[in-house]
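Could someone model zinc ion with this protein?
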Amino acid sequence: MADPYLPALEDFELNADETAAVAKALEDDKPWDWKPEDQKELQALKSAKDKILAYHLSRHGGNCCYCRLNLNGAGPYMTDREHILPKGKPVYKPFSYSIWNLAAACKRCNMQLKRSGDAFVVDPDDSTKFQDSENYRFVHPNFDAYGKHLIRLQAQADAKNIVIFVKTPGSEKATYTHNFFALHELQVDSFDKAQGLEEENLETELAARVRALAREFDQ
Ligand SMILES: [Zn+2]
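Reply:
Sure, complex below.
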């Protein structure tokens, strides 16, 4: 049954040229990295990849699918089209362009932490399970509603930041995702230092509000 927290994947569409280019790419040994010589085909494949990224970014409110970093305006140096089942392993290659196997992630989560491993897949050999949420140890960008497992709370005022991750109690996926993507590294609270200097400044108030919000989620 469709999860009301997740936009449907079924509404994603490629046009005829893009579909044909993707089909040809999938015949190649490296489907995602295939470079057609035909300019029209090259354009169609680029257009398909652009559509995939735009679709997934909007699906996650413009945020990284793993750490919820806001990628609004971040551009290609910070944003990756992420293959959830890595594209390098032969068993996963047929899913190089499958919309359910793609997402938008920040460079840190994709390149630095997730890389090309698949330890997060429960059964990496049975392709009939690849579209099941239960076959993934982390919060799957397309089969799980992130907010049901993890909430990223944050506020920034000038040079002061507060970032807190709240895990849903009892969610194994929250714990696994939190560890796998080292989300503790992203937690920060530089508002604390302002306390004691000025009693009622806006920044302290903001930090207090985010902490209160965190407590509210952390029930
Ligand atoms: Zn990220």
